[in-house]
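Sample pair:
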Amino acid sequence: MAKVAFIGLGVMGYPMAGHLKTKAGHDVTVYNRTGSKAEKWAAEFGGNHAATPAEAARGKDFVFCCVGNDDDLRSVTTGPDGAFSAMERGAIFIDNTTASAEVARELDAVATKAGFHFLDAPVSGGQAGAENGQLTVMVGGDQAVFDRARPVIDAYAKMVGLMGPVGAGQLTKMINQICIAGIVQGLAEGIHFGKKAGLDIEKVVEVISKGAAGSWQMENRHKNMNAGKYDYGFAVDWMRKDLGIVLDESNHNGARLPLTALVDQFYKDVQAMGGQRWDTSSLLARLEK
C-alpha cells in the first residue's frame, strides 16, 4: 500500500482515483477544484479529500493528476498552493493529463531541481476505459522512475508502456489522436455512403469489421453513429483541444499532417452545429446535415 494523491476528478480522474483505492488498496487523498466532488468521492470510496493540491500532495509517495490542459496543469502544480510546493524528495508526480510535450519538460525541470520525479502519462480508452480500469497509458520519463510507478499505475490500466524520456508520453498520445481522427472520418464516410446506397449498415459492419477495415472505432461506435446518437463519450471540444496540441507540435517538428488539419476543421463544423459535447463519432452528423 502506498500513500497516493489524485488531483482532478473529472470523468476520467474520478474512476481512476477510485481504482487506486478499491482495486489496489492504496491510501488515497483527492483534490478537485469543485470541492463538493472531492467530498462525494471520499464518501463513495472511503478515502480522504484535501482543500488544496499542496495539502493533497503533502507526505505522499505518488501524486497523480488529470486536469484539462496546460494552464490547468500549471495551476495545480506550480501555482499558488500547487502540489509541487509540498512534494517529498524522491516522490513521483504522474501526470495523466493530455497536454503538450513542452509543459511536460517544463514541469520535469522544476521537479528535478526540487528533488522529486515527474512522469508524463496521458491515457487512452475514454470514460468507459477509466470506469473499467482498462486504460492504455503512454509514459515519458526515466526507466527507474517508471519501474517504481508502474505497479501503482496498473490499478487503472490494461497496458502501460514507457515510450522514452519525459515528453515522449505526450508525443505518443498525439499520434494516438492523429490516428483516431482519420479512422473516425473514414468510418463516418463509409456509413454515410452505405446509407445513401440503401445498404443495411449492421450487416455491412458485421462483415467488414472482420477484415482489413476493422477497428476499435468501428466495433464500438458504429451502432450509435448509425442511430445518430452522440450524447456520450469523448467530447468534440476535447478532441479539438487535443488536435490543437498535435498541430502546434507539428509546426515545431516539421511533420506534415494534412488529414489531421482537415478533420480538425470538420470538428469545428460540428461545434458550429451545437455538438461541442457530442462524442467524436459525430463527424457523421456533419455529413448528414
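The chain has 13 helices and nine strands.
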